[in-house]
Amino acid sequence: MDLRSLRYFCAAAEAGSLTAAAERCHVAQPSISNAVAQLEQEFALRLFSRSKRGVTLTPEGEAFYQEAARLLGSAGEMEQRFKRVERPTLSVGINASLASRDSGYLLQLTAGRLTDYRLQVRSQPAQSADLWLLSERQVPAGYHFFALLEQEYRLLLPRGWSLNQPLELEQATQYPWIDRLDCELRSAFLERLPELADHASLQVDTEDLALSLVQHRQGATVMAVSDDIDLLSPAIDSHSLRGLVPETLRHRQLGLACRAELADSIIAAFG
Fold first, then answer.
1. What are the C-alpha distances in Å from 43 to residues 10, 30, 47?
2. 0.90 exceeded by the pTM?
3. CA 143 to CA 85: how far, in whole Å?
């Protein structure tokens, strides 16, 4: 006796027909007939009465059916409880220019929504990823973007370095400047504020390093930050760039970009 034979027998009992049971189980009719014959032979029972109209359970067959149905139900519950379901994998690329605090936050949001998938995360993967964590300005062609976090570009200085309010660029350029080569708007900022390039004392290629240098009082820089910058970096003061650069340069959206064919699944996951 095996579970498959019991399933075929129960299907025949419930359908009242070997042909209907075969259609229901997506097998050929002889598979149903052989399963029933094997059970009848193994248990020395006559399970069905056969007629032109189909099959009906004998009294012994009815009792056998009740036990078989109970056993199949228990097997299904056991399978549901203990069988490990393999989740499909999605590759996630993190743009190298994204600060670790931002990528960690975005990845937390993404993983919390895509619980039906196993995420394989890489920084700048060699092959094109299914998903990207990045800025809206960096979205590759053919990907759909979902904004998850809005940030504002601000001037960052070590706490205690004085500046007039409203901000005067001339005073800011008196301090050592940290030139961020990774900044997606670096060229636009230098075009609008060419004085910054003349005062660069350090060049770095990551946000994390630039932030650490400001914290250690090595200079000032411009960086896109969230509302909690004061809580994350108590050693840093941030100043608005309002009036110094166009509004289009003062803000950015961070989020998730996905392949076009995954867009419907991602929309459903994020609601």
1. 16, 20, 10
2. no
3. 29
* CA-angle at 149, arms to 87 and 163, nearest 5°: 150
CA distances 236 to 67, 156, 166, Å, are 73, 7, 18
Contact partners, residue 46, CB within 8 Å, separation at least 6 = 40, 58, 60, 61
Q: Residue 51, CB half-sphere, CA atoms under 13 Å: how many?
A: 7
Radius of gyration of the chain (CA): 33
Residue 82 CA, distance from chain mean position: 25
Write down how long the chain is. 271
Compare 165 and 20 and report the one with higher pLDDT.
20
Q: What is the mean pLDDT of residues 205-218?
A: 91
Contacts of 271 (CB under 8 A, 6+ apart): none
Give Cα 162 distance to the centre of its chain.
43
Peptide bond into 176 cis (omega under 30): no
- b/e map 122-146, b = 16+ CB within 10 Å: eeeeeeebbbbbbbbebbeeebbbb
